[in-house]
Structure prediction request, 541 residues.
Amino acid sequence: MQNAIEIHGLLKTYGETHAVAGVDLEVQSGEVFALLGPNGAGKTTTIEILEGYRDRDGGTVSVLGEDPAKAGLSWRNKIGIVLQSNNDAAEITVEEILNFFSDYYVNPRNVDEVINAVGLEEKRKSRGRELSGGQRRRLDVALGILGNPELLFLDEPTTGFDPEARRAFWDLIRGLRADGTTILLTTHYLDEAEALADRVGVINNGRIVEVATPATLGGRDNAKVIVRWSEGGNMKEERTDSPTELLRSLSARLAGEIPELTVSRPTLEDIYISMIEGEA
Amino acid sequence: MSTFKIGVSRGNLEIRQFLRQRESVVFTLLFPVLLLLIFGSVFKDTIAPGVTFSQYFVAGMIASGLLNTGFQQLAIMIPLERDDGTLKRLRGTPMPPSSYFIGKILAVLASMVVQIILLLLVGALIFGVHLPTDIGHWITFAWVTLLGITGSTLLGIAFSSVPRSGRGASAMVTPIVLVLQFTSGVFFIFNQLPSWMQNVASIFPLKWLTQGMRSVFLPESFASQEVAKSWEHGRVALMLSIWIVVGLVLALKTFRWERSR
Prediction:
């Protein structure tokens, strides 16, 4: 399958700082790809180059087969963008701005459907300034998907969401993926990346550290299992490749139920933190 | 949809937003009328045979209304839209950039028409300002207005790149407009200003706009009171056209969709 995004040797410098220092990345058509990294790692710069907002200083970039620095309005018709923060549309209502913006697209989605999809039915008559942070974010997402994009950019989309809204948002993204939309997502929530992404890429100091599935990133699938239990009034911990065998021997030794037992594998967050700290 | 149709849709949106911001309605539309009411009530003198100060002032306020609704409105609004992300969001859609400007122009024209009607109504009904009755004066009114609002709009778009932030825009733009109003023959009678001030004001478009509007609303006899002893229609057209070209070149060269980083 053709790649929705192809980046080779991408460079961007601001004065002396190399914000992006040679990024190579491929995002396949139809996948959800999460770009992870600390603030200042180059995530937003990379994404804004892909969105055509910023020029690059080196490397080649292809987004839906075109160079975003030169692509025209027909290319913009195929992409959807959710930027990091906005305070616009203070005096226009949710349904007004969606109706007006659907004039700009060749094949827009139905406005009522979009409002339902992001869960703003009860706020459709509210003006921008009357929305809470999470509701504004949902309006941003609504405007991002309004044009029926082939490729959707989401820059920290769920910041300010309560847990319930986040779950609803995840369902929305899964629905878009099922319809064949390619999604490039940045997020600080590792559980979000794990829940949504087919693949994740970790970026740090302007470079890609690793690209893998959430289950295999940083050798997570081969990492030792952590077993914790209580014995003789003390908490014990052991890292092992064969947890079942360890549990059997513990069970025999402690004659039955093992007190305060937990068996865990490293979370995506554990792996991510160790990768970022190892880099810095 | 065509670029023009999207532009009309933008204009609709712009006008809606304008009407919902009480500050913009009061400041842009009602403030000039309020000024007319105050100045017209305080200065009741006749400044030349058959010419009251109110009549002189209405001509000046219509001229400066073109500056308010074009230059001032856009030079303040566009930096605010750059700050709050309106422009960046639009840039990320397939909306043609020209449609954005068509929308702005429609909003400027709408507020200009309302403002001119308000000023003429108040001038005629309260201060007995005579409106021209022959077609010739209205033709002059039409071309002066057209050149004036075109230049004013383009200069507003050009100047929108100067303020570093949306909040600073108003503090930067309002004094410029006020100084021009004081030196270009809106609040004071132009021929009574010191000649160095007249010379400086003659560089800027508002002086020529007020002169053009006086030729519409004041009797022919007042032409001899002008500094050049004539309405100078040729020079009015020339100076306003030069400012249109300056505004167009600067607007095309400097317009930015995002805050400077």
User: Anything to note?
Assistant: Chain B has a mean pLDDT of 91. The two ends of chain B are 34 Å apart (CA to CA).
